[in-house]
Amino acid sequence: MALSKIDGTNFIEGTVPSTVAPGAGKVLQVVQSVIPSAAQDSTSATYADVSGSEVSLTPSSTSSKILFRFDLSSVRKFSANTYAGFKIFRKIGTGSYSELDLIVGGHLYTGSTAINTGCLVASYLDSPSTTDIVYYKIQFNNTPASGTIRIHPDSTELSTTTLMEVAGW
Prior knowledge:
Layout: H1 8-13, E1 27-35, E2 40-42, E3 48-49, E4 55-57, E5 65-77, E6 83-92, E7 98-105, E8 116-126, E9 134-143, E10 149-151, E11 159-166
Antiparallel strand pairs: 1-11, 2-10, 3-9, 4-9, 5-8, 5-10, 5-11, 6-7, 6-9
C-alpha cells in the first residue's frame, strides 16, 4: 500500500499538494528470497546468519526507501526460559555489513514451558541514500544460550525475505 501525505480535501478533489513529489510512495521494484527449509539451530548467544536470508536490490534513486521484510514461518525453542533474538543487517556495495535493528523474538519466551513454536514477521523501512547495490540479511541467536532455538523445526516450512523499493518523499 502506498503512503500518502494528501489531506482529506486534496484527496476528495484529486489534487496533489506541491509539497508531495509526484509518484512518492509508489513501489518501484520487489525482490524476494526463499530461505531454505532445512532446520537451522542456535545454542549460542552469539548472533549467526540465517542461511539463505540475504537479499539485494539496486535502488533507482538516492531518495528511494527500501522496505525490508522477513517472514519466518516457524521458530521453536526447546528449553524453558530461552528466547530467540533477531537482528537486521545492511551492506552497501562492497562495504561491510552493519546492524540496522534488533528484534527480539519475545513471543517464544514462555517461562517454564520447555517447547514452544511460533512464527516471526518483521519489517524495517530503510533510507540507504545510494544507487549502489544494497544487501540485507538477518541473524539470530539463543538467549541466554541454554537449550536450542531452531528455525524450521519440521524442515517443511517456507520462509522469505523481501525487499520493496519505494519512491522517496
